[in-house]
Amino acid sequence: MEPMIRQPQAGGAARMPRKLSSKGRQTQQAIEEAARKLFAENGFHGTTVADITSAAGKSPAVFYRYFNDKADLVSALARTFIHDVLLPSGVHVHLPETPQDTEFFATAVTAFWGMFKEHIGTVVAVAQLTAIQPRFTLLQNEVRRFGMGVVAASVRRAHEHGYARELDPDNTALAINLLFEQFTIACLLPDTGVQDRQLSDTDAIATLSTIWKKTLYGDI
Question: Residue 140 and residue 122: Cα distance in Å, rounded?
Fold first, then answer.
């Protein structure tokens, strides 16, 4: 039986949810979609409420019917990312059957890359807010904990195969998760200045999955 990855419990204070009409849900979704896109392009601090509502085709006054402020919006985006995207994607993880099983690593990284690419604006906004609002550190850690659970499980499986016995599962999971996170942000955000060229999705996934597998199994 494959291990069940521990499910994160999102933190962070926010406006209490209220029942919305169909039109209200559409308006809130439009604001959230516009915010994700603008946070990815300009970051949290470089995006104003007016920018968000203009991109959503709404007035600034409408924003405050749904959110207290930009930070409240980011908190809502992060909770949605955790509960609607991360949790359904990886409650059960099918770990490598053998040391030669490269499909596990490629499949897991492909899923990780796709989820973070779609929600990179949320990831970046949460990361920027951790410096000024400690409650967002809790949300960031919940996002990280999901990936760390998968990596730690893969390290324990490598131990079962007789490999990577010197690696602590939790420490290795933290190191690889932080590598993935920073690599993904640097590759997906425009104008970071980290690279002269933008990496294709295929090359990025191949790079991350190879690093992960080689860390556990060497050159097999």
Answer: 10
